[in-house]
Design brief:
Layout lengths: L5 H13 L4 H8 L3 H14 L6 H51 L4 H22 L4 H14 L2 H6 L8 H8 L9 E4 L2 E4 L2 E7 L8 H19 L6 E8 L3 E4 L5 E2 L2 H13 L4 H7 L4 E2 L14 H9 L5 E6 L5 E2 L15 H9 L12 H14 L9 H12 L11 E2 L3 H10 L10 E6 L9 H13 L3 E4 L5
Length: 475
């Protein structure tokens, strides 16, 4: 059975209380008995209030000072005591040897001198061993002393009185496993024990082979980091897609055991490299209806995913995202647009005109120029490409055009600034208590992020002491 520290016991009990996780589920998750859980819970209830009791705090402080003072005094008393005990021991051994000389008459002055010299050599080592609390070492010292007290053995084998380094030092000091407080990702070590990996599992960006390759690289980076987690770490894996849909590996943050690591990697492997396997397998664990995070209306897309990740109270959040274009209304429940100040049906019709989704209509120059004018009205001109062809391609990509007008049918642009305002308004933690959030955004050629989303992400990164990496070097 695993040993839990005081901090871990407190987390387990509070996690059950705050997230309303049944005791049976919590015990099964951490491999503990209900009796153990009840004892931790009772201790928290009966003794938890003492940390707010000023008298107890003062008493504890005074006790600590007294103990410190006693330790200092005992240190000074210990040295004379050890010396006295050692002197008595030497005297007893010498008396015993002299007695043996008188009784037997065969022990010469030379042998007695040799024994005394041997005792002088081992005196400092005996003194060092006596203060050791290690039971194995104490036993070894007693054996040495017993042999030493037998002159016949000492004469036949003088080496028994020596204290070689190898028999003792190599056996009594076991290796200590260091508690690693860091998470490694893409060659960088981030300080923290609790991490949430957030993956954009939407399919709207999958239009070219390069898009699938970029997604596979993001998945590979997450897998490698999860595999490297230390046994002291905790983690969770969250996927989000569309506006307000998400799924998490666990209802609470999970210990980084081999079982949970393998489960996360199997989930990532099941996503495949095409939209069909991704849609089928991305929601196979805890969906948003089963999670404790309930973001308010108007918190959508990446902000919905970030809100879900924060609910697990991590130290670190690693958000992997791709290109984000206009969302297809047919894939999203209409109530997900609530709180954004837009009517998705009206906006979609104004863009798509009278074309049906099944009709194939070529893209005329007029449509391309209109798309460019639209893009220039919704984006900051400084962030737009100067080349006309690049500008037109960017506009077509943002509108979701794949070679014909019908592909734009039912798509709507999201007011990302408004979504960010909603996210901050309903955030359950203060900015000072935010975990570090690190964004890794991979975009294929000709793909750009909406200016409103990028600027709000950068503002949030500064508040969370995180980072923003555009097109990072992925495995």
């Amino acid at each position: 059975m695993a040993e839990f520290s005081g901090e871990q016991k407190l987390r387990i009990v509070l996690e059950s209380i705050l997230r309303k996780v049944p005791k049976e589920d919590q015990c099964k998750k951490y491999g503990i008995s209900e009796k153990e859980f009840d004892s931790w819970n009772d201790k928290l209830i009966n003794e938890g209030g003492q940390i707010f009791d000023e008298k107890v705090g003062k008493s504890s402080s005074n006790t600590s000072r007294k103990r410190s003072s006693l330790r200092k005094k005992s240190k000074y008393l210990l040295i004379p005591s050890l010396c006295l005990n050692l002197a008595l021991l030497i005297f007893a051994i010498a008396w015993y040897l002299l007695k043996e000389v008188d009784d037997s008459g065969y022990a010469s002055d030379q042998n007695l001198q040799k024994t005394k010299l041997s005792l002088q050599e081992i005196e400092p080592k005996i003194s060092e061993q006596q203060v050791s609390p290690d039971p194995v070492l104490d036993r070894r010292v007693q054996e040495k002393l017993a042999i030493q007290n037998n002159p016949a053995v000492a004469q036949t084998n003088p080496d028994v009185l020596s204290f070689p380094d190898s028999p003792i030092n190599n056996e009594i000091i076991p290796p200590v496993e260091e508690r690693v407080r860091e998470v490694n990702l893409l060659g960088t070590a981030y300080e923290g024990l609790h991490a949430v990996y957030l993956l954009d599992a939407g399919t709207d960006e999958f239009r070219k082979p390069e898009d699938y390759m970029q997604f596979a690289k993001r998945v590979s980076a997450i897998k490698e980091s999860i595999q490297s987690l230390s046994s002291y770490s905790y983690f969770n894996l969250v996927m989000f897609w569309n506006l307000r849909e998400a799924s998490a590996l666990g209802k609470t943050i999970l210990p980084a055991t081999g079982e949970y690591k393998n489960l996360a990697i199997q989930w990532l492997d099941s996503l495949g490299k095409d939209p069909y396997s991704l849609k089928e397998n991305r929601g196979q664990f805890y969906t948003q209806e089963l999670l404790s995070a309930k973001p308010m209306a108007g918190v959508v897309g990446p902000w919905y995913g970030i809100n879900t990740a924060i609910s697990f109270d991590p130290d670190l959040i690693f958000a992997f995202m791709g290109g984000i274009s206009g969302y297809k209304v047919s894939n999203i429940p209409k109530f997900h647009f609530s709180g954004l100040g837009i009517d998705p049906s009206t906006t979609a019709n104004s863009i798509s005109g009278s074309f049906s989704p099944d009709q194939k209509q070529p893209i005329s120059n007029y449509i391309r120029q209109t798309a460019v004018r639209w893009l220039m009205t919704v984006e900051n001109g400084e962030d737009l490409p100067r080349d006309q062809n690049s500008l037109e391609n960017m506009a077509m990509t943002r509108l979701g055009l794949n070679g014909d007008v019908s592909s734009v049918f039912g798509r709507v642009e999201i007011p990302w600034g408004k979504s960010f305002e909603n996210f901050l308004k309903y955030l359950n933690v203060s900015l000072d208590a935010l975990p570090q959030v690190h964004f890794f955004v991979s975009l294929s050629e000709g793909t750009y992020w909406p200016t409103g989303l990028k600027s709000s992400i950068l503002e949030f990164v500064d508040s969370s002491r995180g980072t923003f990496s555009l097109n990072p070097l992925l495995p």
